[in-house]
Amino acid sequence: MNTQTHPSIPVSDDSHARLAALAATARQLLDRARAAGADQAEVSCHEDTGLAVNVRMGEVETVEATRDRGLAITVYFGQRKGSASTADLREDSLAATVAQACAIARHTEPDPCAGLADAALMATDLREFDRWHPAPLDAARAIDLALAGEAAGRALDARIDNSDGASMNANASLSVYANSHGFLGSERCTSYNLGCVLIAGRGEAMRRDGWYSVALAAEDLETPEAIGRKAAQRALDRLDPRPLPTGEVPVLFSAEMARSLIGSFISAISGGALYRRASFLLDSVGTRVFPAWFAIEEDPFLPRGFRSASFDAEGVATRRSMLVEDGIVQRYVLGSYAARKLGLASTGNAGGVHNLQVRANAGDLTALVGGLSRGLLVTELMGQGVNPITGDYSRGAAGFWVEQGRIVHPVEEVTIAGNLKDMFAAIEAVGSDVDPRSHVRTGSILVGRMTVAGR
């Protein structure tokens, strides 16, 4: 296989010129929409490049280079809305895309909540947050990194008998958002991901696990050797699992699993679920949902944050603020449409939340395990068993049984169940062992009591 390809992210950085070209296209489309009679319009343009390699058992399986660009335009004729998109940036295609969006708008029913976000909310302080780190990574180098990770893991122990492979991915994204309020903002971001999944044991005793590192700058990744060895050790730790009896016990979610609990909370206080009356946390602002010490802060201005931004997907200025303080829900997560449906104002969250920090009140995972007399440490979750309307929670899980402050054996094929409202109220600790691989920055979370259904 010929692995000599163009770098996924060029050595010479022409990102400013490419952003300027996207901005010029966005302005052109706004002018076309205005000429076509639209009262309001908004345009999103993007350009993405990437490289992905996969290896397994010392051999290269796939090498894929990608380059993608496109735009979407939304026009408003009064309260009637039409949208169209294209990946073809030629003049005739741009004209046809605007015409299509206008035609759709003229044939839709008016929606009193439709329209751009309020002009007064547009961001004026446009900054970057150290999220652009292009690196001269070509296919050959990416393959070497993936192979090194897999080799280090396979060499750790003779019981690592197989591999699900290792991968290296690099991506660079440029985007521009503009609207007829006169707002135009641009963003650029790079990301790198190196991971490995290994298999320990043989036959029916085989167990698999993995590890990965993700960062905005390539130099912030963990080394391939460290990733491979950690993947191998995690697979080895899962050998010889034992069943559990059904009962109610404390459940400690590792940091990477704890993110899903925070994600369920964010979904429940987000606009779409609220105005559809499809959330178990309706009318929850001002009420205590978590213990009195619990807090979640949103910080869109975090240097090298995965979701740092000066503006949201509608151009609304982002702001640093508390989502939860003293266990009390402080606000919802809203874009302009949902806000109007609810009779509220946008919170600068069109497109989702930015960087979240869950406040810790305890030590790291080792300390949390050491404080358990008995309980379940969850390191893997399966299935989608969360009812967003009632908050009922039931998911397959795997992990480790803890007694007298120490892990005694691995566990699999159990179900953990409860209700998210009760689970949130029963949180006893948030660890300091923050998993840095996500925009949801939380340590391990200990829920004081849940039902664990074993065999």
From TrEMBL:
InterPro entries for the chain: Metalloprtase-TldD/E_C (IPR045569), Metalloprtase-TldD/E_cen_dom (IPR045570), Metalloprtase-TldD/E_N (IPR002510), PmbA (IPR047657), TldD/PmbA_N (IPR035068), TldD/PmbA_sf (IPR036059)
Cellular component aspect of the GO annotation: cytosol
Family matches, as Pfam families: PmbA_TldD_1st, PmbA_TldD_2nd, PmbA_TldD_3rd
Transmembrane segments annotated in the record for this chain: none
Domain Metalloprotease TldD/E central: 133-239
Residue ranges constituting the Metalloprotease TldD/E C-terminal domain according to the UniProt record: 246-454
GO biological process assignments: proteolysis
Organism domain of life: Bacteria
GO molecular function: metallopeptidase activity
Annotated ranges, domain Metalloprotease TldD/E N-terminal: 41-105
Listed PANTHER family: METALLOPROTEASE PMBA
The family this protein is said to belong to: Belongs to the peptidase U62 family.
Protein name: PmbA protein
Organism: Thermomonas hydrothermalis
